[in-house]
Design brief:
UDP N-Acetylglucosamine Acyltransferase, domain 1; alpha/beta; Spore Coat Polysaccharide Biosynthesis Protein SpsA, Chain A; seven-stranded mixed beta sheet; nine-stranded mixed beta sheet
Length: about 425
């Protein structure tokens, strides 16, 4: 695996994840209380013994760069690295990244310097656990020019993906990016050829690309150099290669979620607390998900009632009720609070007197959630200050709203309190 270079695409501006991407790159969005989205593909690489990793990004890359530099250092005899490559203007190229393929093209001279025979292209906003060694092994055994990781999907989800058809040998012969209507129906196939049962194949008659590609070294170099007008892998590079090059499909029939919207991000986080079998678990000893080691104290519970929730390190939870929620690092929740079906991201630092007695008679609102507040079906971003007697519950059932001046947005009915926002005492949202 030392002959494989992983290239993780940080994505665009992340507009569908706004306001979580207001001040951070999409891969730097917090996940599961103490991780970030970028930890998923990096951990998959490390667990697969792929230790040469670049992350490409061009929007709000400061926090992503800081997280990676503090989290991933290879010591001893392991010759590896995890490095962020941000978009830059040069005398030869004055443009920012124009798409996924263009991002790789602009840094191709650096990639060519490494002694590798394959380029593994990944996305930085997917939640899944995958051993890339089997993926690479199939790629080599079939002598593929490009191998795509694919999964079977139903008709409701199919139009959101690049869809493909394969022949009996697993070779991709047709590819269509996010087809609709009749074009979508034309991409339906018999997925029993992938090993699905007849029942599964009937429910999932489409083969979807996961946006995970493995290229032969010279194939990727030639495609990017010979087709400079092609700027995107899914829309241009892959469709134009189907039928011409040896494109192979690698079946991944397991949990995989594209964290592209506020709704999908919210649901993926809350799914982590499901029992007894969550769709994705951080408790797999054989394939851990790594992140930054923060050396925080244990969480302190002061007569708190916790039900089906995940609580991160370094919190102080007083006489409160927390149900079906994920609570991030350094969270302080005062007495009388109720948190239900919510994601509380916590804080990046401790305020003075963090363990203090709750007090609603104070000149400013401190970090955390003040006494007697209720939070339901919401996301509270980092370093937010929620006052006393605040009700965050979308009482008017609003689906979409921009209230940045008031410190929150609503997307798909989910209230998101902005990072560093202050919600004063007695406010009802």
């Amino acid at each position: 695996m030392d002959k494989i270079l992983a290239i993780i695409l940080g994505g665009g501006a992340g507009t569908r994840l706004y306001p979580l991407t207001k001040t951070r790159a999409k891969p730097a969005v917090p996940l599961a209380g103490k991780h970030r989205l970028i930890d998923i593909p990096i951990s998959n690489c490390i667990n697969s013994n792929i230790l040469k990793i670049y992350v490409l990004t061009q929007f709000n890359s400061a926090s992503l760069n800081q997280h990676i530099s503090r989290s991933y250092n290879f010591f001893g005899f392991k010759q590896g690295f995890v490095e962020v490559l941000a978009a830059q203007q040069t005398p030869e190229n004055m443009n920012w990244f124009q798409g996924t393929a263009d991002a790789v093209r602009q840094y191709l001279p650096r990639f060519r310097e490494l002694d590798v025979d394959g380029y593994l292209v990944l996305s930085g906003d997917h939640l899944y656990r995958m051993d890339y060694r089997a993926f690479v092994e199939q790629h080599r055994q079939t002598n593929a020019d490009i191998t795509l990781s694919v999964l079977p999907v139903d008709e409701n989800r199919a139009s959101s993906f690049g869809l493909l058809k394969t022949n009996g040998a697993g070779r991709i012969v047709d590819f269509s990016e996010k087809p609709k209507g009749e074009a979508l129906k034309a991409m339906a196939v018999d997925t029993t050829t992938l090993g699905l049962s007849p029942e599964e194949a009937k429910a999932k008659p489409y083969i979807a690309s996961m946006g995970i590609y493995l290229f032969k070294r010279e194939v990727l170099i030639d495609l990017l150099n010979q087709q400079p007008e092609h700027t995107d892998f899914g829309k241009e590079i892959i469709p134009s290669s189907a039928g011409k090059l040896n494109l192979q499909a690698y079946l991944f029939n397991d949990y995989w979620e594209d964290i592209g919207t506020i709704e999908s991000f919210f649901n993926a986080n809350l799914a982590l607390v499901k029992q007894p079998n969550p769709p994705f678990s951080f408790f797999d000893e054989s394939a851990p998900i790594y992140t930054r080691a923060r050396y925080l104290p244990p969480t302190k519970y002061l007569r708190a009632e916790i039900t089906q929730s995940m609580i991160s390190d370094g919190c102080v939870l007083k006489e409160c009720q927390i149900t079906n929620s994920v609570v991030g690092i350094r969270t302080r929740i005062e007495s009388g609070c109720t948190v239900e079906d919510s994601l509380i991201m916590g804080a990046d630092y401790y305020q003075a007197n963090f363990e203090r007695r709750g007090d609603c008679d104070r000149p400013t609102v401190p970090l955390g959630i003040g006494a007697n507040s209720t939070i339901h079906h919401a996301i509270v971003d980092k370093n937010a200050r929620i006052g006393c007697n605040v009700q965050i519950l979308n009482k008017d059932r609003v689906e979409e709203a921009d209230r940045e001046d008031q410190g929150f947005y609503i997307r798909s009915g989910i209230i998101t309190v902005l990072k560093d926002a202050t919600i004063p005492d007695d406010i009802v949202i």
